[in-house]
Structure formats: structure tokens, C-alpha cells
Amino acid sequence: MKNVFKSQLCLLRQKMSLSQEALAQKLYVSRQSVSKWEHGDAEPDIDKLISLAEILAVDLNFLLSGQQSNEELIIRLQNISKKFKKTVLKDINLSVYGRDRIALLGANGSGKTTIINTIVGLVKPDGGRVRRFFNPSDDLSVMSQENVLIESLKVREHVMLSAQIQRQYSPIFVTEMIKKFNLNEQAQVIISQLSGGQRRKLALLISLLKPSKLLILDEPTVGMDLESIDFFWHYLDHVGGSVITITHDFNQIDKYFTRVILLKNGVIDKDVSVAAIHANNQTIEQWYRINN
Ligand SMILES: Nc1ncnc2c1ncn2[C@@H]1O[C@H](COP(=O)(O)OP(=O)(O)O)[C@@H](O)[C@H]1O
Ligand SMILES: [Mg+2]
């Protein structure tokens, strides 16, 4: 995805009739800093980026890449079937649009991870068609169910490496992200020595290094402590693009998701908007317990 931050900033600031000075005051930075950002001579750190997105009332993706459309089709699964020993997916039809925030729900073994792996391209379906309307190498970020981490690296080394691979590297950015994800104390710790929750946080951090059109999270909060879970949902709320999340953690999800998909017996049994669930005076958890 192209970084169009400097022009977006200029455009959005003017749209809100804010002078560089006025914006600088809101952010507690100098006017010169804002001017440098708009000229592309410097970029704000992640804290300032989040504040900027709040002040300009847009999400981070839109600020960074200018992409924002509800109707944009991101991916379409057509009649997908997949059999391992047993049939897992029978006839999956699913369209995901720009800025959908989807909770993918279903019992253990119902095939949630298999659907994700089909979208990512790790699983080849036996039948049906996957149509991707984005560039998987640039516009897709994934946090898998199993942490895919290089155990022998230190936390900071791993973040640096991942940032370099994703062409997002700068020493300041790496430091900021580690701080942001509360992994400061572990920065020099070898990954094999981290706790389960710390690994999950690191895997999440890595999946959020670059803005993407589609972010896929497979049970992201498993093993995290409550504070990290709070941070997780808050952070995610500032991430643009479409998000598909598999979760069994119902705490807080009502605020975040826009759409819920329930997988059952190899098909999508329900595909409803969260607004419809709420209009029925239910939480997602209550809805899930009744329908699953
Ligand atoms: N690579 C594989 N080889 C064999 N069986 C698999 C493989 N991946 C998944 N399965 C089986 O497919 C079913 C669905 O798995 P999965 O998609 O991981 O479920 P979920 O994520 O909903 O818990 C399970 O019965 C699982 O054992
Ligand atoms: Mg799974």
C-alpha cells in the first residue's frame, strides 16, 4: 500500500480548517514539526499518529494510505469445500468488504482456521474459488493461531527483522512499537524465554507493523493478561482496513465488531450485522449461545 501520509495530513487538516499552528498545539508539538510532516521531511511517531487520527476523525489506514471505502470488495470465497480426513468446509460463500470488522465464530474444530488459511493461501480448497482483490504481499497481515516466531532471537531483534521485511524499518519506530505493546522490559530477552501472553503480544505487534487492507487475527488474545487485552481492543480500534478475527473472548467485542459470522457443519450458518444483534437487545455472546 502506498504511503500518502503527507498529502493526507495536509488535505484533512485543511478540510477541518485547522492551521498548522492549531494542529501543533493539539498535539503538543511545534508548528515546524507539522510542517516537516507535510513536506515529507519527517514522520510522527505512532503515539502522535494515533492522536492525529483521532483529531482528524479518520482511521490510521486512511491517514497513512488514503484508502477508505465500505463498498470495496476485498475478498470473495465462492463455494469453497475442503476435506482432510473428514469434510471440514462444505460450501462456503463469503464476501468481505473494506472496513468490515468480522468476528468469525464457531465451535472448536468447526473449520475457522481452515477458512483463514484458505484466504491466506496456506490451504488449497478441494473445490470452489478464492478471489483476492488485493496484493497479498503488501496488503495482507496475519496473526496466526500458532505463534510463528524465531525462538532464538531477542524481542527487539525480531521486531527489527520483521519491520525490515515489511519495509517499515526505522530504529525509532521499532522502539515505539515495543514500548507501545508494553514489551520494553523484554526487549533484550530471547523469545524462547517469554511467557505465552508475551509471545502473543509480540506476534500481534509484528502483524500490526504495516497498514494493510486485510488484517486476520486467529485467537489473538489467548494467554494475554487483562491489561493487555484492554490495550489490544483499544489499539485495534485505531487500525483501518478490513479485519477478520477468530475469538472466543467475548469480553469487549460488542464495541469493536460490525459483523458476525457463525460457522457450523461446514457452512456459514449465520452472517449478521452486530447492529442487528444489538437491535434485538442481545450481546454477541448471548446471540452466540443461542445460535451455536
Ligand atoms: N492440516 C490438517 N490436516 C488434517 N486435518 C486438519 C488439518 N487442519 C485442520 N484439520 C482438521 O479440520 C478440522 C477443522 O480445523 P480448524 O479449521 O483448525 O478448526 P477451528 O479453527 O474452527 O478450531 C479439525 O477437525 C482439524 O483436526
Ligand atoms: Mg482454529
- The CATH architecture of the domain at 5-65 is Orthogonal Bundle
Rg is 20 Å
Mean pLDDT comes to 91
Major pleated sheet? 6 strands, mixed
Shape descriptor reads globular
What does this molecule look like?
The protein has a domain at 5-65: lambda repressor-like DNA-binding domains (434 Repressor (Amino-terminal Domain)), CATH 1.10.260. It is of the alpha/beta class and 292 residues long. Helix content is 41%, strand content 21%. The strands form 2 sheets. Strands 5-6-7-3-8-9 form a 6-stranded mixed β-sheet, sandwiched between helices. The protein has a 3-stranded antiparallel β-sheet with strand order 2-1-4, covered by helices on one side. Helix 2 (20-27) packs across helix 3 (31-39). The protein has helices spanning 5-15, 20-27, 31-39, 46-55, 60-65, 112-120, 136-139, 155-165, 171-180, 196-207, 226-236, 253-256, 274-279, 284-291, and strands spanning 73-83, 87-97, 101-105, 127-132, 140-143, 214-218, 242-246, 259-264, 267-273. Adenosine-5'-diphosphate (ADP) binds at residues 84, 88, 106, 108-114.
Outline the secondary-structure elements.
Elements: H1 5-15, H2 20-27, H3 31-39, H4 46-55, H5 60-65, E1 73-83, E2 87-97, E3 101-105, H6 112-120, E4 127-132, H7 136-139, E5 140-143, H8 155-165, H9 171-180, H10 196-207, E6 214-218, H11 226-236, E7 242-246, H12 253-256, E8 259-264, E9 267-273, H13 274-279, H14 284-291
Parallel strand pairs: 3-7, 3-8, 5-6, 6-7
Antiparallel strand pairs: 1-2, 1-4, 8-9
Helix pairs in contact: 2-3, 8-9
